[in-house]
Amino acid sequence: MSTTVVTTEAPTTAAPAAAATRGQVEITNVRKSFGGTEVLKGVSLTVPSGGVAVIVGPSGSGKSTLLRTINHLEKVDGGYITIDGQLVGYQVRGNKLHELREKDILKQRTDIGMVFQNFNLFPHLTALENVAEAPVVALRSDNSQRRNKGEARQRALELLDRVGLKDRADAYPRQLSGGQQQRVAIARALALDPKILLFDEPTSALDPELVNEVLDVIRELATSGTTLIIVTHEMGFARDVADTVVFMDQGQIVEQGNPLEIFANPQEPRTRSFFSKVIEPAFNI
Amino acid sequence: MSSAATTVAQSAQRSAPGPATRAEAENLADTGSAAALPADYSDYKLVPARHPWRWVGTVVVALGIAAVAWSLATNPRWEWGVVAQWFTAQSVVTGLVETLKLTAISGALGFILGFILALMRLSASPLLVSVSWTFSWIFRSTPLLVQVLLWYNLGYLYEKVSLGIPFTDVRFFEAQTTTLISQFAAAVLGLTLNQAAYSAEIIRGGILSVDQGQLEAAAALGIPAWRRSTRIILPQAMRAILPTAFNEIIGLVKGTSIVYVLAYSELFYTVQVIYNRTQQVLPLLLVATLWYVVITSVLSVLQYYIERHFSKGAVRNLPLTPLQKVRRFLSTHAATNVRSPR
Ligand SMILES: Nc1ncnc2c1ncn2[C@@H]1O[C@H](COP(=O)(O)OP(=O)(O)O)[C@@H](O)[C@H]1O
Ligand SMILES: [Mg+2]
Cβ of B222 and A120 within 8 Å? Predict the structure, then answer.
């Protein structure tokens, strides 16, 4: 009797534990300089599995750079980043961190989807081909099988359907509106079933009337259990979806917290002055 | 503003019923257009803009072409009979095949090597960068003629060629240089290496023209490096590479004639041999020239379609090909002809 209890209990306790560590990002004291200027001055941030962190801050404050260190597009000069406890871009040998080989870095990146301000869709490939490309050729972090072409296309169609663009699957990016292109880019980032999605100002290049169709897709993702880290200037959107709003200025995290609190009652003067500039008076908290 | 008004006034004065005074004319210039014209144009016929100078230009060019054609046809010294006689002669065709062979092999190898050199040059490794740079530097700064002759005379410089570990006695392979380097090998080596040096720069330029964000997006998706180059970057770079690359290939077709110095019987050498015997210099040069024109024409058509292929996605909608245009023209014309009797 007691053994049956143990065996039935073991999976139920193990399963949430495994789920709880899918996509937890821990950034510890990250530093980065370009030339002589330090762009990230010791940034630490934890985003729990399935969490939604929105990073806001003035232009040039290092938001993009921070985002790009998370998938090792940018190498850190100091500090480290872990995803589910595993170092990004490095491995421990002795008491040193050795940079991984390109192949292993690429594998790690398949867990991290990224959506760019300028979409960066491949213009010579159709929407469907854009989404189906990586699953066929990228080596997976868990060393699972790459998808064959048919499966990848099938999955790509599902994802395009999810972002509302199934009927534009054969269109080339230049035949799509900005909002549609960004939705394809989101589908492309989802194609590898990433644990984490990074958005770098996903709506900044869009005409105002196209912003919402993209934000709606991201809103839907926010409830899906994938960890989202979003750089944006859309404060209303931040208030709606974020678990944590992070305010960055001059390479540092000045303040972070629950969106309702931080918008209503920012503690730091720099935060207050930034919000007073970007949030319209009519903005309702 | 005032000068425009004056013009209106002057022209108005010339036409009898117009306003007589300057003040009235100014009035017309300011408000007249809205008041004088009817508001509904739906019954008006659209008249496309006319381009009279295009017609003048066309006539001038046509006259020029006619004059040249007339002189070519009527001047007996061109000896068209001799040209026709030699154009498809066995020896000429054999030479032509050799020319095509040299072009195809050195062109293909040259561009493959050039692609690798371009990737080396763009890599992060200082060693690869300098090797690639040095290669281009050497082969672009020595005349092709010298390179070809050097390769052919390599046996004079180095009697044996061997593959082994330098400064030891270990040899995997050894051969007499003269048996290894035939005329053909010297020609291909010279043309290929020279072509590679130029193609490397063309391809590098093409790669640089592709937005950095493309590489980043591909890297962020975990797409492997080689695949990034061949599937993402190269097809986009092709748009910048192709026009210059076809220039190079067309140059190479004629450039192969330089290997006549090796007495290698490609088209140009063959023709020389014939006219040295028959003394019909101009007609035989014309034979070679006409073949070069034919090859270049075929390549130009090929270029058009290949460029079109790689512009997929770069333009919103592909323009019609000339053939499609002709077909459309014929079909719409046929359609109007059918309708016109009514
Ligand atoms: N590759 C680079 N080389 C040099 N400076 C850079 C580079 N990338 C970013 N920077 C500089 O780093 C600072 C932070 O940039 P970024 O992270 O893009 O800011 P944000 O996204 O918050 O606007 C800026 O001053 C920018 O000019
Ligand atoms: Mg930025």
Answer: no
